[in-house]
From TrEMBL:
Protein name: DUF452 family protein
One Pfam family, short name: BioG
Lineage: Bacteria, Fusobacteriati, Fusobacteriota, Fusobacteriia, Fusobacteriales
InterPro entries per record: AB_hydrolase_fold, BioG
Length: 200
C-alpha cells in the first residue's frame, strides 16, 4: 500500500487542510520527533512510502538523518527548498525582521500572503519560538528531493528563485497556478505524487 508522510511547515498543523482526506497520510508537524518518525517507519515497513515536504518542511526534512530520508521511494518538495535562507529562498535579514516584529496580527498578515484564510490551533508563543529556533540554528543542508512543485503566485518563496535552485540541483519540477498555500489547487494528497502508478 502507498502511504504519504507529509512534513508540515512552520506553525502549521492538520488545521491547514481540513477539507483533505488524511487516509493513507501521516502528517508530521514541527518540531519533528525523530523517534516518532522511526516508529512510524517501522509501522509502515511493508508499505511504499513517499515524503512530501511543504514550505519550511522542505528544510526540516533535509535536516533529517539520511537513514530516515532513504526509507522514501520518492521525496517531493512543494513551495519550499532545503536552502530556505539565502539567495534562493528568504533573505536572512527578512527572516530576522519577521521574527523581531512577529505579533498575532502580523502572523495573520503572513497567512494572508500565503493565501491561507483558515485558523491554526497552535499557541502563538510556540509559533514564535519555532521561527526563533529556525533562524538561530539555520545551517544550509544538502538537497534530498527528487521532484518539486512550484506555485506561480507564491509570495513567500519566489517562483523564479525556486526554479533557479532546482535547476541548479538538476531536480525536475512542475509549476502550478497557485500561491504558497497549495491546497486550493491540489484537492488530494496523492495528486502531489504525480505519475507514480507503477510504483506498487
Amino acid at each position: 500500500m502507498r502511504w504519504i508522510f507529509f512534513f508540515n511547515g512552520w506553525g502549521m498543523t492538520e488545521d491547514a487542510f481540513p477539507h483533505l482526506s488524511l487516509e493513507q497520510v501521516e502528517v508530521i508537524n514541527y518540531p519533528y520527533d525523530i523517534q516518532e518518525i522511526k516508529d512510524l517507519l517501522e509501522h509502515h515497513k511493508n508499505d511504499t512510502l513517499y515524503a512530501v515536504a511543504w514550505s519550511f518542511g522542505a528544510y526540516y526534512f533535509s535536516k533529517l538523518p539520511k537513514e530516515i530520508q532513504n526509507h522514501f521511494h520518492k521525496k517531493i518538495a512543494i513551495n519550499g527548498l532545503p536552502e530556505t535562507l539565502g539567495s534562493y529562498g528568504i533573505l536572512p535579514k527578512m527572516c530576522k525582521f519577521t521574527l523581531e516584529n512577529l505579533t498575532p496580527e502580523s502572523l495573520r498578515s503572513f497567512y494572508k500572503n500565503m493565501d491561507f484564510h483558515g485558523n491554526i490551533s497552535k499557541k502563538f508563543t510556540d509559533i514564535q519560538e519555532e521561527l526563533a529556533f529556525f533562524y538561530e540554528n539555520y545551517q544550509k543542508p544538502e538537497n534530498p528531493f527528487d521532484f518539486a512543485w512550484i506555485g506561480e503566485n507564491d509570495r513567500i518563496f519566489s517562483e523564479k528563485k525556486l526554479i533557479r535552485y532546482y535547476e541548479k540541483e538538476r531536480v525536475p519540477y512542475q509549476c502550478f497556478f497557485g500561491g504558497h498555500y497549495p491546497f486550493h489547487f491540489f484537492q488530494n494528497f496523492f495528486e502531489l505524487l504525480g505519475d507514480t502508478k507503477n510504483d506498487l
